Amino acid sequence: MANIKSALKRAKITRIRTARNAAYKSMMKSAVRRFEASLNDNTDVAKESLQKAIRIIDKLASKGVIHKNNAARKKSKLTQKLNKSIAS
């Protein structure tokens, strides 16, 4: 355990940010799950949920919660899934 006041503060801030980042990641995963569930339904609903998921992914990449290349990869995979479901 830290004894110095600044180290205690850094530990506290780290706990807060870790919890916040976990909530953001959970929100992203939920959006992706909603999109994947909507693929079986109407294509308009799937397109809307894809846009919502992409918006959340971009937001997290801009905040630094996930890396920009990770965000690009996720968006690409989701778009591929949508295009594949539309084609079939």
Could you walk me through the main structural features you see in this protein, from its secondary elements to its overall organization?
With 88 residues, the chain is an all-alpha fold. It has a single domain (25-87), classed as Methane Monooxygenase Hydroxylase, Chain G, domain 1 (Up-down Bundle), CATH 1.20.58. It is 85% helix and 0% strand. The chain is built from three helices and no strands. It has helices spanning 5-38, 43-63, 68-87. The mean pLDDT is 95.
Keywords:
single chain, 88 residues, mainly alpha, Methane Monooxygenase Hydroxylase, Chain G, domain 1, 3 helices, 0% strand
Radius of gyration: 17 Å
Average the pLDDT over all residues and give the rounded result. Answer: 95
Number of strands: 0
CATH class placement: Mainly Alpha
Count of DSSP-assigned helices: 3
How large is the share of residues in beta strands?
under 5%
Could you give a short account of the major beta sheet? none
How much helix is in the residues?
over 70%
What is the count of distinct domains? 1
* Structural classification: mainly alpha
CATH topology descriptor: Methane Monooxygenase Hydroxylase, Chain G, domain 1
CATH architecture: Up-down Bundle
The CATH homologous superfamily is named: Ribosomal protein S20
Terminal CA distance: 57 Å
Low-confidence segments, given as residue ranges, are: none
Question: Quick one: overall form?
Answer: elongated
- List the helices and strands in order: HHH
Write the layout of secondary structure elements.
Elements lengths: L4 H34 L4 H21 L4 H20 L1
